[in-house]
## 1
Amino acid sequence: MKMKKHSGVMLTWTAVLHTVVGIIVYWQQITNIANDGFINAIDPQLHAGRAAAFWFLMFGILLFMLASLMNWFIQIKGTEVPQFVGVHLLALSLIGVLFLPVSGFWLVIPQAIIIMRK
């Protein structure tokens, strides 16, 4: 069975892992945001940790959204995920690895390559 057929599921698990790690790592910042009532609780100049937590979790949601779209292509439409999705994921991951070498961006590189393969 081709790995490409499972690319949406693989990215879904990556999104779940990313979000769970974000909740664990940023638990205190999330708690502080909640204690301040969520609305306007993040001033990037005053709360760099809160801003990092917000964007970390938002990226997880965006990954999950992309994974859902990929699953729709594969399962509902019966087509492969377009190669350009793999190209964009690879570019995003490589940029991420350059700026944050100790990160989960490495997990997406093989997934991107699988999507790009003919």
## 2
Amino acid sequence: MTTKRLLSLDILRGITVAGMILVNNGYGESFEMLQHSEWNGTTPCDLVFPFFLFIMGVSTYLSLSKYDFKLSGPVLRKIVKRTVLLFLIGLGINWFDHAIGGDFLCFSHLRIWAVLQRIALCYGIVSILVLTVNHRWIVHIIVALLAIYSAILLWGNGYAQDSSNILVKVDLTLFGADHLYQKSPVDPEGLLGTISSVAHVLIGFYAGMRMKKAKTVTDKTLSFCILGAVLVMGGFLLSYGLPLNKRIWSPSYVMVTCGLAALLQGVLMYVIDIRGKKRWCTFFHVFGVNPLFLYVASELLAIILGHIGVSNWVFQTIHSAVPYPQAASLAYAVYFVLLCYLLGYILFKRKIYIKL
């Protein structure tokens, strides 16, 4: 029973990682649905990262349950080590992007925050929290975090797309403009957004807890579907006062994306675990068993291929056969996902699973 559950979770994780690589590697002019929303609202592209955080929450429950949720020296060292390594790898990717162009001493303008750094903080905070707090308070903590963050956004002009936004002010004060995201005033992985992101991962943890307590696969599937439906409806209702917004990781965005992830997990459990339809799973299983490695490899590979001109050559070759720029961009992104898949497939066939 456990293997089946983990397979469906691996598939959802694999779909998410493949999706992250796809939307991150469109070349030139992408379709609107493969671009992040400029401000309020959500596109399919905006679902991949929050899906990953939700899955991380579920996986954190399954992982820490092996230690009976008891905090000990070895467990704490493991959590701290993984948190620090994730953060440093994220910084390393940002550094490598500068260094490959010759700017080795880029520390005065190195971006501090990015996807892996947010993952690191959320993992570390949530892991220590669930090892030190009675799990009956998890829902209360989620509600409290989202309420606090909502108050911060409402009080601090959190929906402003300029420097009057409290999220911008905090990041500028603590880190300085040179260490932040340069393409918009609001850093989408800034510090204050970690509050709602921690709540996001805790929702995944709570979903894992509900799944573990359910007695049959059917009950586990229903637990995801019911939780997902409640979150999606609640999130859309909340969006009337606090619109969906990925850039600031708004509370409504947390609820809707967690709900959609839970619903998809429920569907996958039904298809894979109840109906036994697994023949289509291999492609996403490859991404699901080595998610961190393949994501990091995709980031480094994109930087290297872009620097040496291979990316542009491949895109121009595709574009010469596909005249529409958006379609050519999508074709390039698919090519890049397949490139990463080949790398992952070699590891998959040799049963090599790279973990921190």
## 3
Amino acid sequence: MTVDQRNNPKLLVGIIGGLTVLIAVFLAYQWLSSSAETNTEHQEELAAAPAKPAVATPVSTELESSAPAMETETIKLVEDDLLDAPVPENASLAKEEIAKLDDIQQQLNEQETSLKQQHGDADKLINLKEEQIKLLEAQLAQQGK
């Protein structure tokens, strides 16, 4: 190639345009293939889903604490009638139900440990803040003298 051919703006625009088209085609292919996979997974989930899924309902409770009548809302993760529900006769459905229940139990255990850790952290923070307040009060008392 000669120097004139290398610096030709039409050639550069053509190369850039070609690369842009190739990238656009590649991205469109990726997008279409991922949406097709999502649709097939969604259809499989619908086919395997029970006729009436359990819906979590919020339950409001009153906590007894030093604060007067604090109300908090909790979300029910497991329905009460779950223990009374009949076990499916099909072995594969029973295994799926057991796997679901094990997963729920694992989530509850993880949530419990997380809440205990948060409670411990909050207690430590409260103690540190109390110490900080005491130190600030002592400094104010010394400055006031």
## 4
Amino acid sequence: MNMNTLVRLAEPLSWRIVTELFRRSPDQFIVRELHPSGGQYDCLELAEFTSQGTESWVMVNRNGSVTLFRPGKDRTWQNWVERTLSDPVRFVDEVARSLALVSPQPLPSSTPHTLMLRFIAEFLTVSIGRPNFWQCRNGFRDSSGYERSGKRNEWFEQFPEIFNIEPPKLSRDWKLEPAYCYWFLLKDDVPELGLDTDGRVYRKDGQVIELAPLYKQHRKIWSLIVAVAADLIP
């Protein structure tokens, strides 16, 4: 598998992993995009809220490995893209077992935050094999070293309705920089949709769509994608 193929596959598969882990305990976690070591790494992190802030549980490096950071449960998986491709359910279950993160049956009901993550993961999955490269990036570039961190203002400005709505509840409850609560679906590096952890989708035409009421009608994430972004389906 060549490097370009790995990069394209790593994007949707990394979202699938963190989303399925998040669904097991949606009130416990946040998903963040991190670029440690001066931007050498491109990671999705599953972190737990604590009284001291957040504590990392899982780091999925799109350029490398999947690593656990829980005390006493440290573990690293190399070649995670190939393993996830061959059997995604089995791999996610293996990671969850290593974390002692139980999988309740049935899973907890999807919160607006969960719906946002599921929407992203499913949308990116559909993009596999298409000519355009779709990816999802956070509203805050969190980097260390020589790379500049900060809010990605140029993306927010393309969705003016974002500024007319109160920042998501998550940012208020946990005193997060609000930009962490926004994500952008990019086509070839151009933002096409904005999303927030309150389960809202922002379109460039000014529409703001709540995912939770639509989900009550359709009960399928794919139906939400068609209803919200049929004209953008990869």
